[in-house]
Amino acid sequence: MAGESGMKTRVIIVGTFLMLLLMAVPETAFANSSGRTGSTDGCGAGFCHSSTSPTVTPALSGTPSSGYTPGITYSLSVSASGGPSGTSGGFNLDSNLGVFSNPGPNARLSSGEVTHSNSNSRAWSVDWTAPITGSGDVVFYLAVNLVNGNGGTSGDSWGTDSWTLSEASSSPSPAQINNLGFNQPGTDRGSVFSHSVLDLDTGSPTLVLSNGSTVSFNSTGGSEVINDEVISIAGDCAILYNRTLRCSGSNTYGQLGVGSNSLSNGTVDFGTRVPVAISNGNYHNCAILDDASLNCWGRNNHGQLGDSSNVNRNSPVPVDLGVNRTAISVSAGNDFTCAILDTGEIKCWGFNGFGNLGDGTTTSRNSPVLANHSTGLRASSLATPGYSVCAIFDNGSISCWGKAYTVSTQGGSVTGSSTDIQLPTGRTASDIDGTNWHTCALMDNGSINCWGVNTHGQWGDGTCSSSSSNCSGTDGNVPSYVLMPSPAIALVTGIESTCAINQSYSLFCWGGQSGEFDGTSNDILVPYLMDFNNSTLGESIGYSEQDLDGDGTRNVLDLDIGDDTDGDGFNSSMDDFPDNPARWVSCPDGQWGRLSCQNSSTGHFSLQGSLFHESCTTGNYQPEEGQSLCYEASSGYFVDEESSSVQQHCDPGFYQNDLAQSSCTPSPVGNYTNNQYGDADDSHPTPLQSRSATYDGEIGNYSWSNDSGDLFSIFVPRDTTVSVNLTNSNLNGDFSVSLYYYNSSLAMSFISTSNNSTLGGDVASVSTIGTPFNSSSILLISVTPNNSSSGDYTFTLTLKSIIDDSTIGNQSESIDAEIQVGFFQCQLGTYQAKTGSGSCDSASTGRYVSSVGATSEELCTPGNYQPLTGQSSCLSAQQGYYVSQSGATSQTPALPGNFVANPGATSQTQCSPGKYQPSFAQISCLVADPGFYVFSSGSVSQAACSPGEYQPSNGSTSCIDASSGYYVPNYSSTS
């Protein structure tokens, strides 16, 4: 190819000069900086180590024997045999195609070739990446010099050889691209046919991922992901998922378009239209809208807004492209703007000091003028680098005009209408981008060529033109081949740098940087692999389909066809919008798009003709793709975020008895709710979603719930039938299902009952088929047990349209019909003082709860006690026991000398004189025996009468003294 041959020529010419640069390496090691067989300079011409005896035989290993696979990297090894004895040597390895990288020990890269870095070895290694598909044969040139280390050239010897390697005959197609479902994934700035998901001005490139997040790079080269909702980006502005345009940043001239110069961010107002393509200039921005009209805003000192004035605008103003003319691409440049029209013509406006408007003058214009490029071809893509314009035409050629092309000095003479750019032989351009003073084009085979200014290595060919950077290259308009290791699918240019994405979705950048590439401030002269994990993020870039019709031709080049009134490359007979190149199709319900239709994502919906899918609002969700509505959150569930694909059960302690709610209600005091069981009332219906689904419920599983059946309601649109199939997992479960509806008097009217029940595993079925409904209705579904049956049940609810027999919703989604649709009262022995509780608290010991729905527990009163928790009453103190305080957990036994005669006593009673009690917990006292007495109250024993005393009676409080003439000799005498 011509471009690659030119590159090789430069390498050969500088060969002798490189010899001088490498003087730090011992001369005895040099094999020649050019080093290839047949070289006419350096060692190849006999200028240094001229001896070829003893014979040196170079060896190159690691090349694939069956041919190279395009884009694959191979590890090569260089060695030699023969020659003088020793361990010192040097080499030079070159190839006409592919890229060398990662040199091993004692080796280095020099001007795209590989050579030694010292003379300490006779074996070297390097990686080589094969060229792109269709590049042709690769020739490796190797020269090896083996030296004896005597400090001179005598005795040294060198040898050369070459190897030719063909492309593998069964070169695999880029299957990784097809993984994304695209014919040709990519990105293009300012085009109605593509989103712009790779942006670069100064500093860091920005990538847009398919989930709307953006990736940028910090000053150490690390990638940073920011969550967002972006689908297309250009400078300070981004089109969001909802197709609004958000801009933020500097706003001196109103370039944010938010209606005020004082705001630093906001949404651009386009009225009822939405932006489909955007382009950023130096201080102005432009957008193509969904009707293919063009609006611009910002600085207007040279008329770059195209509104026939020179007044700055902080809100969008329309650009008059001509009668019935529309835009398919726009590029905002340095104080001027150009657009490709539906006719394939180019119109430009704004600054024209270098003839960049293409109208044959250097007079600035504040309204669009036709660019007379004189190619006679339709333009398909354009860029506005510096004060020039470069465009790709429908045959894949590129022509440029403006500074350095048709005008050399500002206000100078115009030397021609345009200048053809000499692309490599056999190559055509498919995309182009230019910012500031350099331009790059993506070729049909995935290679990239750049031209213009190269002060910081923005060409990516290993050279640069800045003498301060020790570069020897020059600027120019002859395209130079970028040393990409594999074919590219997208590119973008910045002020002093360039970036591209290859077919493996890796990101490469080169040129000037402030650390965003490799963490240094060094200019990067060849493509540098960025810190971007393509295995996890690369396939997630929000690419656009560049070949919508799959014919192998990119959209921008697939324009010149018959019967195409709007010039969008889509036949008018199949074009839903034959006069609007920004739209091809009006998508059906559940799909959206401008040029092709795609299903609405989960959590979204779209109606016929939608340009984008809408997010489900809070309280609604959509678990499936391609839907035209969102489902209301079910009773017992909630959805608290937009774009949700699932509904969530209410948390324990909360319930929801309505549909479409974004939160749940805390259960009131004295009540609770949990996620284990629930109950749909049999008299007040629980609402169901207006869709097909499968519902699970239960009847009578909890004796305290008084569950005698379940009643549900569902809104049924007109021209819709409903059928219910009820089953039970327990073969002994005996349930029936019936349908009712509310009549005009809001009374329940019977429709039908299932012919059989679920007993024995049967299906109980009922439907509204044959029942006429003149309007939308509220249908009631009643599930009732037969013969006091209890257990779990499942019913499949199916809604179908009478018009097209389509099913509304999906029966595969299983929903709990009863859990957390309401709350339960705390049962006897339990209470709940707080709201939002998932259970009730058991009454503590010494306390009780005697009613349902209690908010507090009660203390056991004196005379009562409770040793257990969760009790609905207290225990009365038994005879012989008493409870003197409130909240007692136990009863107290009567002490010796005391008794408790009655239950429920709050205190003990002392034994009276004449009585005693030696034991605990007694219900009465003992009467003092004859011969004994009890003098005081609360006695635990009786006392014996002493000698000289006696007591013949029971229950005495004292003894009787012996009478005169008598005596009592013993204790306990009764006489």
Helix proportion: under 10%
Q: The CATH topology of one domain is what? A: Immunoglobulin-like
CATH architecture of one domain: Sandwich
The major sheet is characterized as: 5 strands, antiparallel
- The low-pLDDT segments are 1-48, 170-178
Number of helical regions? 3
Radius of gyration: 47 Å
Identify the CATH class of one domain.
Mainly Beta
The total of beta strands comes to: 77
Class per helix and strand makeup: mainly beta
Order of strands, widest sheet: 5-6-3-8-9
| Overall shape | elongated
- Terminal Cα span: 150 Å
Average of the residue pLDDT scores: 88
Beta content: 25-35%
Describe this entry's structure for a reader.
With 975 residues, the chain is mostly beta strands. Among the domains are: 164 residues, Immunoglobulin-like (Sandwich), CATH 2.60.40; 64 residues, Tumor Necrosis Factor Receptor, subunit A, domain 2 (Ribbon), CATH 2.10.50; 141 residues, Jelly Rolls (Sandwich); 65 residues, Tumor Necrosis Factor Receptor, subunit A, domain 2 (Ribbon), CATH 2.10.50. Helix content is 2%, strand content 34%. The protein contains three helices and 77 strands. It has a five-stranded antiparallel sheet with strand order 5-6-3-8-9, with no helix packed on it. It is elongated and about 165 Å long.
